[in-house]
Amino acid sequence: MQPVIQHFFHPATFTLTYVVSCPETQACVIIDPVLDFDISSGEIGCDSAQQMLSYIKQHNLKVVYSLETHAHADHVTGASYLRKHFNCKIACSEQIIKIQTEFKSLFNFEEFADNGCQFDFLLKDNDTLDVGKLTINVMSTPGHTPDSITYVIGEHAFIGDTLFMPDSGSARCDFPGGSAALLYQSIQKIYALGDHIKLYMCHDYQPKGRELRYQCTVEEQKLYNIQISHQITETEYIEKREQRDAGLSVPRLIYPSLQLNINAGDLPEAESNQRRYLKLPLYPAQALIK
Question: Of residues 284 and 82, which shows the higher confidence score?
Answer without folding.
Answer: 82
